[in-house]
Amino acid sequence: MTALVAHELYRFFHTGDDETFALRGVSLALCAGEFVALVGPSGSGKSTLLSCLTGLDEPDGGHVEVGGMRLTRRSEAERARMRASHFGILLQTGNLFPHLSVRQNIRFQMMLAGKSDEARVDALVETVGLRARAHAFATQLSGGETARAGLAVALAADPPILIADEPTAEVDADTESRLIDHFETRRRAGLTTLLATHSGALARKADRIVRLHDGRVEDD
Length: 220
Ligand SMILES: Nc1ncnc2c1ncn2[C@@H]1O[C@H](COP(=O)(O)OP(=O)(O)OP(=O)(O)O)[C@@H](O)[C@H]1O
Known about the structure:
Layout: E1 2-15, E2 18-31, E3 35-39, H1 46-53, E4 61-66, E5 69-70, H2 76-86, E6 87-90, H3 102-112, H4 118-127, H5 143-155, E7 161-165, H6 173-188, E8 192-196, H7 200-205, E9 208-213, E10 216-219
Parallel strand pairs: 3-8, 3-9, 6-7, 7-8
Antiparallel strand pairs: 1-2, 1-4, 4-5, 9-10
Bound molecules: adenosine-5'-triphosphate.
Protein name: ABC transporter ATP-binding protein
InterPro entries: AAA+_ATPase, ABC_transporter-like_ATP-bd, ABC_transpr_LolD-like, MacB-like_ATP-bd, P-loop_NTPase
GO molecular function, one term: ATP binding
């Protein structure tokens, strides 16, 4: 079953007289339960693609379908509803509430999904290697800790589709291997994962590697 489809996505940015072609006709299909790594050089369009796939950004051309329903060109409220029921999202813009601790951020995300499970909060804090920082506020975390806490929040509600941008940036080797185990557990549970990454170790564990270059899929 196909979980997420992108049809011929185009995205252009205009800054003054400059025009950047971030996506130039990207098509991609993720099957339910697939673990896919999105790779490519800096500036190749990975983050832009993830934003369009989750409906946080609207493509200038093409469309996205999630769970068989079109996500693109709907109202912001409809996109937000579809996002909440399909995705866990970690993008470079971050997803933490600054006035909540790491634990409270994870708990809050679970609550939004109608869930409450303290053992799962403990397990997620452990998985991302933040046991010692679980009670720190988001504003008190380092860059790497912020990214790991953000990943725990993205995973909190056990989303059908996890979309994460560089989830293992700035993590030590032990944490990276725990996270890889977690992504493999998701795959065994039939959950779908798409990660943009510069990590060869992580990409090698994926079922499939999709390579972007200059806004196009170079290899899939
Ligand atoms: N909001 C924006 N306004 C103008 N240009 C943008 C914007 N967002 C992205 N771009 C440009 O679009 C291109 C693709 O950027 P994107 O962030 O998607 O690349 P990336 O592959 O994720 O890079 P990295 O690996 O460095 O995160 C780049 O040339 C970038 O400068």
